[in-house]
Amino acid sequence: MTKIFIAEVIDTAILVLFGCGSAVLMGAEIGMTGISLAFGLAIVAPAYGIGPISGAHLNPAVSLGAFLAGRMTGGSLAGYVAAQLSGAVVGAGVLYLIASGQAGYDIAVNGLGQNGYGPGYLGEYSLASALIFETVMTFLFVTVILGATQQGAPGAMAGLAIGLTLVAIHLVGITVTGVSVNPARSFGPALFVGGKALADLWVFIAAPLAGGALAGLLHRMGVTRAD
After folding, report:
1. Tens digits of per-residue pLDDT, 72-86?
2. Can you give the C-alpha Rg of the chain in angstroms?
3. Could you tell me which residues come within 8 angstroms of residue 146 by beta carbon, excluding any fewer than 6 positions away?
4. What is the dihedral of CA 194, 198, 200, 203, to 10 degrees?
5. Which residue, 64, 177, 185, 227, has most beta carbons within 10 Å?
6. Quick check: 125 pLDDT over 80?
7. Torsion of CA 109, 43, 6, 60, to 10 degrees
8. What is the pLDDT averaged over residues 1-5?
9. 148-158: string of b/e by CB count within 10 Å (b at 16+)?
């Protein structure tokens, strides 16, 4: 379990550092399409590089879905979530150290790739839009993950399918919430940014977990599982 814990810490740190880092360090140069690709590739790299150790969940919503689908125990779920939150903090911390070395950078102004909604945040979508987007997209994301990793699926392609799904989700919804679909991804940056990012964090915990739980339950029931 120690090896798995370390793997999930590293994997989640990669996701936050690559994904949020693309927005903070290179957002003006690569635009939203580039940021979307960075988040997707940040899934592909751990999936093939470290995935054989832990399955590369990188995401409490994914782990919850796997638990409810009957693929892991409650004890393992707790360990995975603790590792993912720790990894997100590590990734956000490293990103902050890098970003703060740029002249004029101010975390209160430039942020750390945190999620949000409402007035002053990207497309200024409502709370209802944020909740619907995060719940539905996480449901779809976790459904794809459970399907791509189920017995009989082409395992060699799973990491690519999952990464490309995350790219598509970002292409659709960056302006809605910045795209979380992952409580850990939201937790790390919010912890450093504070203020509104922390106040909004509940949305990016509750909605993704609800979507992941629904995906796991439907998979366990056989609705989205190949028999």
Report:
1. 999 999 999 999 999
2. 16
3. 65, 66, 69, 71, 215, 216, 219, 224, 225
4. 150
5. 185
6. yes
7. 80
8. 91
9. bbbeeeeeeeb
Q: What is the mean pLDDT of residues 3-26?
A: 97
Here the tokens at position 200 are 């909004």
What Å distances lie between residue 133 and 57, 112, 140, 164, 217, CA to CA? Answer: 21, 21, 11, 18, 19
Q: What is the pLDDT of residue 153?
A: 84
Look at the alpha carbons of 179, 183, 186, 189 in this order and tell me if their dihedral is positive or negative: negative
> Exposed, middle or buried: residue 28 (CB in 10 Å: 0-12, 13-18, 19+)?
exposed
For residue 77, the surrounding DSSP H or E stretch is helix 74-99
Q: What is the CATH number of domain 2-221?
A: 1.20.1080.10
CA dihedral 4, 65, 195, 86 (to 10 degrees): 0
